[in-house]
Write a structure and sequence with these properties.
single chain, alpha/beta, Rossmann fold, 6-stranded parallel sheet, 15 helices, globular
Amino acid sequence: MNIMIVIDGFYDGGAEMFAIRLANALTPTDTIFFLEVNPNKDRPNRQIKLLNSKITLFQLWLPELFKFFGYKLSAMTSINFISIIKKLYFTILLIVYKIDIINSHSWDSDSFVLQPAKLVGVNLAISFHGHYELVETLRENYGLITKNILKNTSCAIITNDNHLKTLKRFHFENKFYKVYYGLDFLEYPSITSFSEDEVLRLCIVSRAIKEKGWNQTINAVIQINAEFGKKRVELQLVGEGDQYNELFIKYQSYDFIIFSGYCENVITFIDNSHICLLPSTYSAESLPNSVIEYLSRNKPIIVTNIGEMPNMGMYNGQFAGKIIHIENLELNTEQVKDAIKYYIENPEMIKFHSVIASKAVMKFKMEECVSFYRHIFEIAK
């Protein structure tokens, strides 16, 4: 198949990371094209180099002259000429490369590809990652555009039941499938254990934004160490974001709070920890890649009860860690502290939950994910 995978931009997010992993995994069997609708030179765009070299990448850059006149005309007429030019180019790509199916990964990219896909007669399979729930109050004419997208989509691929609620609310009548992300397992690490005489090492891998629980976790660690009168817990924070500089300046003096910034290879940090956390209050949380990566290294996890996280670490009715139950997307330091102290008081549970993690992660094998996606594309095209 000739498959066009579409993202809005190369952000450091889970949707973009999965789209890249999916594209790479499909490369041995299909001809893959990858489109970035809204490239931006001000973004780091670090994920581009993760794409397989066999994938044809298109980025809808516009020459400065086009952009200048496009913006001028748009301002004069209230018609988005920039979007029209991009859609015309995308339509040509669909024809020239004989695309069989389009797989789009965000609300913005879904709304962009819709008209060209209809014009050329290429079917659209959309993958939900939480964007529909996130942008509802941020996009003009959201309801009207969403109805139009779903009316003209061959199928939807969801990762949690919140997405299903969105589909039902807009009376989506076509097929939908629940498919978990996939991850390549290059090796099977040993089971994690912890003894009372060790410092408990924690790790968070996420964007450094308010909703990912960095501040609450930092304060929980500070309070625990203060209670013990020594360094009992150490926290490694991996990622970048709006809160990073603020938190770094405020807490860098603590030798047990380690700020590592952005890192492509997070596995080293995960492997060095006893427990990994994602105490998220992010309203669009869906199926976080970082939690999959935690489980893939057999790490017990501390997560909140939003998105699909309560199911991610589940195996045979047992959970590979602790679930923090939050209400109204509010998390307090005490909740995180209690979850961490549970392992200090019950060190044997780290090994127990590590074993569960080693089994729970098997639902995220890339081979199964790709097999599902190829089957869906064959039906939808």
